[in-house]
Amino acid sequence: MNLLWGGMLLVGILYGAFNGRMQEITDAVLSASREAVTLCMTMTGILAFWQGLMEVAKDAGLTEQLCRKIRPLIRFLFPKIPADHPAYESISMNFIANFLGLGMAATPAGLKAMKDLESLEEKRRSGRLPDSKPVPPGTASREMCTFLIMNISSLQLIPVTMIAYRSQYGSVNPAAITFPAILATAVSTGVAVIFCRVMGK
Q1: Is pLDDT above 70 for 130?
Q2: How far is CA 97 from CA 14, 105, 118, 154, in A?
Q3: Which of 14, 39, 74, 145 is the most buried (most CB within 10 A)?
């Protein structure tokens, strides 16, 4: 990705230089840099708000109740994870954050879920889970692949991040994206579930 983006920037700068448009490039760089800082500050505030709200919900026991509600779904998608494994909680937290459209807030839970799934593979490799087939070190397990696919498809009931972007760029009705986002992510998540179940067999 670094090479791709670096190459695109270099080609654009060289093209502008050969066509005598360096002033326009300089203006665009300054304008985009200023806009990027403003956008980052705005999204940081929104992320802090929703992340704090998630922490309050966690302390109040709300997220624990939500985790129990979606436990059958997690069990359906990840049938080989032991019932008492901590991966259940981290996966559930990631799914809940994605349901609420908090893509950035879902990242910490997603990273923890991958670490928990890696610890599960270490147990399999050590023989503490003899009924399972471990994967070689450095190879993604079936649970890791399923989690990644579900995380990418990301069913969103409230696309908070997208609404925030639209509001930042002056949309007349930022929330108009809600229904199309629900429809699109419902379809992508449905396809992801079917794909994971078919490939799992």
Answers
A1: no
A2: 42, 6, 21, 10
A3: 74
Identify the burial level of 158 via C-beta atoms within 10 angstroms of its C-beta, where 0-12 means exposed, 13-18 middle and 19 or more buried: middle
Can you tell me the distance from the alpha carbon of 20 to that of 85, in angstroms, rounded to the nearest whole number? 62
Q: Tell me, what's the pLDDT at 132?
A: 63
155 has a pLDDT exceeding 70:
yes
Q: Which two tokens stand for residue 113?
A: 């879920």
Residue 103 has pLDDT above 70, yes or no: no
Residues 21-62 have pLDDT tens digits of: 888 888 888 888 888 888 788 777 777 777 787 778 778 877
0.85 exceeded by pTM: no
**What is the rounded distance in angstroms from the CA atom of residue 52 to the CA atom of residue 46?**
10
